[in-house]
Specification:
The complex is a heterodimer.
Chain A: E1 6-7, H1 9-20, H2 24-43, E2 48-50, E3 54-61, E4 64-67, E5 74-77, E6 80-87, H3 89-101
Antiparallel strand pairs in A: 2-3, 3-6, 4-5
Helix pairs in contact in A: 1-2
Chain B: H1 3-13, H2 20-39, E1 43-46, E2 50-57, E3 60-63, E4 70-73, E5 76-83, H3 85-100
Helix pairs in contact in B: 1-2
Classes of the chains: A alpha+beta, B alpha+beta.
């Protein structure tokens, strides 16, 4: 597999067809639902943990002063809620193994 | 929400007649495909949701935080996620809706 490989919803749906025999419509519906359900859960301020892969967590940030990187002007960055991803141990090991072996 | 909750929610929402067992298998394939692509150094791009990529950390000399001794650290590769614009906006909006409803925020910073 090349380093420039980019997987999209269509590519994942293709695998559901190849590996499980899902038809195109079912495959796309399940892939779409996978990401939609994660997003919908995060919107309710509930974290999502997929063991082995990682977890999506939410953080509330207070208002803070920041800078416009172009002009250097100080501007207030508004209070916000952000999503963060913590990769699971299994995924971290999988991603790092090629370097470790070289 | 964990993996089995996710399977159940997808099952309840889908309009085709896929069994819950097949949804469980499908969730496994989705996670496995994303993991494999990242392991091979590729990316995952889901429009609106976000993208997963691999960040390379160059080999460098770090320090043992306890003793201050220099330690040689090898090159490392770390998975990272960048939320998409639609997801960022939806989540941020959810906080403002909660605020208006009088809920307290769990400030983490």
């Amino acid at each position: 597999m090349g380093k420039d490989l980019t997987l999209t919803k269509a590519g994942i749906a293709e695998e559901l067809h190849a590996q499980l025999g899902f038809n195109k419509r079912e495959a796309m519906e399940v892939v779409q639902a996978f990401f939609d359900e994660i997003a919908e859960t995060l919107v309710t301020n509930e974290k999502v943990g997929l063991s082995g892969f990682g977890s999506f967590e939410l953080r509330d940030k207070r208002e803070r002063p920041g800078r416009n990187p172009k002009t250097g002007d100080i501007v207030m960055v508004s209070a916000r809620r952000v999503v963060t991803f913590r990769s699971g141990q299994k995924l971290r090991n999988l991603v790092d193994k090629h370097v470790a072996g070289s | 929400m964990n993996r089995s909750d996710l399977i159940e929610r997808i099952y309840n929402k889908q309009r085709a007649f896929t069994s819950e067992k097949d949804i469980a298998l499908a969730v496994g394939v989705v996670i496995q495909e994303m993991s494999e692509v990242l392991a091979s150094g590729g990316r995952v791009e889901i429009r609106g949701f976000g993208s997963f990529s691999v960040r390379r950390l160059a080999p460098h000399v770090g320090r043992n935080p306890k003793t201050g001794d220099p330690v040689q650290l090898n090159e490392r590769r770390i998975p990272r996620f960048k939320p998409g614009k639609a997801l960022r906006e939806k989540i941020n909006k959810s906080m403002h809706i909660a605020l208006e409803a009088g809920q307290k925020l769990g400030h983490t910073s």
